Amino acid sequence: MLAAQREVAVQQSLLSRLFAARLRSDQLFSIVRADSIYDRPIPERHRIIFYIGHLEAFDWNLLHDRAFGLKTAYPELDRLFAFGIDPVGGGLPTDRPSDWPSVNAVREYVQRVRRNLDEKLLESGEADAHRLNGFDLDTLLNVAIEHRLMHLETLAYMLHQLPFERKIAQETLSFPETLPVAHSMIEIPAGYATLGLPRGSESFGWDNEFEVHSANVPAFEIDRYMVTNEQFRKFIEASGYENRAFWNEDDWNWKSANGISHPVFWKRAEDGWLCRTMFSEVPLPLNWPAYVSHAEASAYARWVGKTLPTEEQWHRAAYGTSEGSECFYTWGNESPNSSLGNFDFQRWDPAPVNAYSRGRSVFGVEGMLGNGWEWTSTVFAPFSGFEPFPFYRGYSADFFDGKHFVMKGGSARTAACMLRPTFRNWFQGHYQYVYAGFRCVNV
Fold it and tell me: N or C: which end of the chain has fewer CB within 10 A?
């Protein structure tokens, strides 16, 4: 009886989270002006209209037949909105606005999907166990929730590049002045990093988070703070973008072919640099983390004679202790809140790298959760024992191509549930639009 009651409580909590994520996605799309819904702010991505349909199509395609045996009323739209595309790969899309359904048709599709799914989800919270093929409804709901939350972040990257006049400005939180950033390196003693989740864990994880394993990490030093705009500006002033010695061949060719000479969020002005925030341009905040591509981060690291951390080094610095135990969050086991870091949709833009001292790790490394994903030198690849989700086989496996790099931590637009230590994000090394910075290591 108690087990059944717990299961009902879990599913009610998941439904509440799903409905809250829907509301947040609706609010995000509402900042786009009506005449801009068919815009494509990032050349490699779909038009905005696609994503309005995609979030519901994903939920429908995941659940309707597999969990409930429902028949579809709009098979063409289910297929049209099924899959996004990977940035920087496969050529640029060539579709026109007229190739897409009307906004009203897409919104009608969204509402119909929600009504049909909610009717089943709210009936009893139970799905056809045979159809689920070994995965319970809780797992599928977690997939639907986190998929939507991930898009809330990646859509922010896209809307960030939308011209200011094409969106409706929202309230932004100002941040109190902080002390100047006292850059230093922190010594991390040798120890172990426990990566991944054990198979059969009660905790949700994506397929690439399995299987749990330990890695021996020799002693190293790591930057106390993420590299700031002020530090990265010095790299530019030292002609770092023009010196081939700091770039590998692939990165140099990409940079040269695209005429890249500074981060995509920066703009040259007569008296210095401007920074593109979500709703305006401001004088470059020198104490914010420098958001750059993996290629740019790697070049900076070579310039200063250091390297990017491996996934294992980053994990050790974030969660490890001298005694060998590990924390669930950098600051310990306290649930995330606004005093511990810049995450969970608190802000539209970064905060100073030294703004959240309460969130520092046991070793004293600051700002590792929130305020910007952090690039590692680790190529995204499966852990030993990896098994793709049978209902979403390409989620990770399609990106084990040697071109994607693991990112850890989170940004201001990362949901709190994805601050877990096993979560792995990844992007191609030449993608500039992600809210990602970095810190360096010495070994």
Answer: N
- What is the per-residue DSSP string for 341-401? -S-TTS-SS---TTS-GGG--TT-----SSSSEEEEEEEP-PPTT----TTSTHHHHTT-S
- 36-54 pLDDT, tens per residue? 999 999 998 999 999 999 9
Among 317, 312, 299, smallest CA distance to 429 is for: 299
Phi (first) and psi of residue 40, to 5 degrees: -130, 90
| Domain architecture of the chain: domains with CATH | 2-166 (1.20.120.450), 185-228+277-442 (3.90.1580.10)
Tokens representing residue 235 in the block: 């790299």
| Strand 436-437 to 373-379 pairing | parallel
Beta-ladder partners of 330: none
Q: Cα(first)–Cα(last) distance of the chain, in Å?
A: 55
pTM value > 0.85: yes
- pLDDT confidence of 9, banded at 50, 70, 90? confident
Between CA 135 and CA 129 the distance in angstroms is 8
